[in-house]
């Protein structure tokens, strides 16, 4: 059973209020008494209750984090960065998974307010602008990661990868290899990120004097490997078939690689495949995946640092931090991309 302040008071022969005040370094308690009671507390193994302390100080010491799917390797790295950042600042995390479900997301937001979190980092596209507005009415500072379309006009800040730039980088790489028939496989659940990556793809084609081919802009039902399998099925049915496939993310690329190989295609000799995110599995696919590396861990650390700075300043808004900040991605070339068949 946990040692309580009353246990210490009983052992020391003083009132529990004296013990409580001594442990808070109340100057009204003689220093000698304070030191004696602190030594006794340590000897008995007393651990202060963060919950009880929060009730008295109005500070819970807890920050909320909402993700779309914690099983996603990309989000796992982001959360690791958040966790390291908030622990360094003395906070703990309440982590919740929305599973991209709007009703579940609404229930999570209610739970966050009931648990008196001091601020929230949101890495879930299932959270709607209306829900964010409702959350903001509680006066909580908000930081959004890769969900800038939902940033409301007041209380929120956003951090995101520059998806348009990343889409251009990957497409320009394929063009530099000699590809002229390039397909884009988007994610039906990818929201603005999927649209922005497609816009970068289109911009690179336009800069090369190529018009986008509507039939080559495909969409998978999810951003997971099964979505890549479905997209690869549609890709295989195209006539003429493109020589390269740019997938919304690495998980979709994993599914696409598997399905294309099952169809008997040699990769990358027959078809080049590129992804986005640079999850840890990308270097271990067959062939290893060319992709756009997102600064996943840094996104999490920066989100944590921004939220902690808002809390430490006692402000819901920062006079200096930009409302929206984007981080660049970097092209990582591996073995899944090569010149198209017949290239000199």
Give the helix/strand layout:
Elements: H1 5-12, H2 16-23, H3 31-44, H4 50-57, E1 62-67, H5 73-88, E2 92-97, H6 102-114, E3 120-123, H7 129-136, E4 142-145, E5 156-161, H8 163-176, E6 182-187, H9 191-207, E7 217-220, H10 225-236, E8 244-247, H11 250-262, E9 272-274, E10 291-293, H12 296-312, E11 324-327, E12 330-332
Parallel strand pairs: 1-2, 1-3, 3-4, 4-5, 5-11, 6-7, 6-8, 8-9
Antiparallel strand pairs: 10-12
Description:
By secondary structure, the chain is α/β, with parallel strands linked by helices. Helix content is 43%, strand content 15%. It folds into 3 domains: 5-48, Orthogonal Bundle (434 Repressor (Amino-terminal Domain)), CATH 1.10.260.40; 60-161 and 296-327, 3-Layer(aba) Sandwich (Rossmann fold); 163-294, 3-Layer(aba) Sandwich (Rossmann fold), CATH 3.40.50. It has helices at residues 5-12, 16-23, 31-44, 50-57, 73-88, 102-114, 129-136, 163-176, 191-207, 225-236, 250-262, 296-312, and strands at residues 62-67, 92-97, 120-123, 142-145, 156-161, 182-187, 217-220, 244-247, 272-274, 291-293, 324-327, 330-332. It has a 6-stranded parallel sheet with strand order 2-1-3-4-5-11, sandwiched between helices. A 4-stranded parallel sheet has the order 7-6-8-9, with helices on both faces. Helix 11 (250-262) links the parallel strand 8 and strand 9. The mean pLDDT is 86.
């Amino acid at each position: 059973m946990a040692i309580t302040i009353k246990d210490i008071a009983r052992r020391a022969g003083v009132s529990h209020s004296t013990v409580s005040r001594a442990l808070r370094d109340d100057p009204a308690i003689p220093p000698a008494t304070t030191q004696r009671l602190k030594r006794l507390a340590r000897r008995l193994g007393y651990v202060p209750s963060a919950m009880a302390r929060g009730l008295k100080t109005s500070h819970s010491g807890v920050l909320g984090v909402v993700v779309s799917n914690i099983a996603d390797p990309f989000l796992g790295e982001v959360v690791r960065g958040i966790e390291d950042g908030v622990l360094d600042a003395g906070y703990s995390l309440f982590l919740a998974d929305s599973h991209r479900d709007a009703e579940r997301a609404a229930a999570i937001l209610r739970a966050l307010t009931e648990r008196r979190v001091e601020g929230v980092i949101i890495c879930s596209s299932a959270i709607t602008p209306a829900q964010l507005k409702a959350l903001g009415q509680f006066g909580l500072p908000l930081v959004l990661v890769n969900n800038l379309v939902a940033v409301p006009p007041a209380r929120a800040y956003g951090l995101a990868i520059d998806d348009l730039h990343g889409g251009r980088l990957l497409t320009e790489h394929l063009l530099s290899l000699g590809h002229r028939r390039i397909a884009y496989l988007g994610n039906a659940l990818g929201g603005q990120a999927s649209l922005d990556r497609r816009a970068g793809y289109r911009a690179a084609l336009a800069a090369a004097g190529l018009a986008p081919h509507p039939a080559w802009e495909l969409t998978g039902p999810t951003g997971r490997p099964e979505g890549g399998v479905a997209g690869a099925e549609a890709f295989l049915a195209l006539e003429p078939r493109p020589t390269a496939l740019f997938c919304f993310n690495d998980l979709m690329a994993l599914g696409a690689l598997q399905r294309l190989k099952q169809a008997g295609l040699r990769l990358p000799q027959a078809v080049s495949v590129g992804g986005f995110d640079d999850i840890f599995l990308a270097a271990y696919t067959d062939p290893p995946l060319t992709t756009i590396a997102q600064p996943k861990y840094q996104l999490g650390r920066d989100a944590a640092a921004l939220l902690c700075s808002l809390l430490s300043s006692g402000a819901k808004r920062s006079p200096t931090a930009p409302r929206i900040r984007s981080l660049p991605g970097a092209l990582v070339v591996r073995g899944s991309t090569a010149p198209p068949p017949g290239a000199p």
